[in-house]
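seq as requested:
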Amino acid sequence: MSTVQISASDVNKLRQQTGAGMMDCKKALTETNGDFEAAIDYLRKKGAKVAASRQDRESNEGVVIARTSEDGKRGVIIELNCETDFVAKNAEFIAFGNAIANSAVESKPKSIDELGQLMIDTEVSRVSIADAILDKTGKIGEKIGISKYEVVEGEKVIAYIHGNFRLAVLVALSANVAGAEEGGKDVAMQIAAMHPIAIDKDGVDATTIQRELEIAKEQIRAEGKPEEMVEKIAAGKLNKFYKDSTLLNQEFVKDPSKNVAQFLSSIDKGLTVTAFKRIALGA
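struct tokens:
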């Protein structure tokens, strides 16, 4: 037990530096004989212990954040999870997610593991994102972690966040032309609302196509249609699937008289989508 007298001002100073609770700060200083650096390490170790003890907990709440680079040619989406909606709505937790996303845009990590090694500024010092997550875990007392990290690159990348950080979209356009920013946001909102599975029918994998054809054939046979008509009707149903489920072929939500491909061409002839990502919280 420490023989050093721990003053209220010392506790408050550590609390201001780390954001940890008053009792946690007092205990950390007591256990480390008033050594501030050691007390910070003590609190971080507490975070690791909390994280280890909560590995079996579900962390399905959190925030999904999209960011683009200054030149607009690269975007990232991160999903930062916690256990409760109360924490997910906390301004400090949202700011932490924004800091991670900003770091990812700047430093271009290739994976979640690489993202965790990036350095960010915290209340205490400049630490790795992985260590900052441990610090937050110790402070908040919930399991926290990054579950998704996606990157989109292109001539013009637009980010869109929907529903209080519950869903985020990145969409890359083929050219950075007048109207691309506003039009790209409309397309991103389309992706958020309509959840396309691919840009066009060429992007739909063979397994999905085969499954849709088999489902269609079973439906047609159940309706009692002649066997010689099954293939033709199934092909028509597959085309309807492409129209409903691939982005460029979907009816444009803001103007159903045209599809998304036609909407983009109205901005600039030949303008199209080259990539997109849609991440929904917990999905």
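The beta strands are 61-68, 74-82, 119-121, 126-128, 145-153, 156-162, 167-173, 251-252, 255-259, 273-280.
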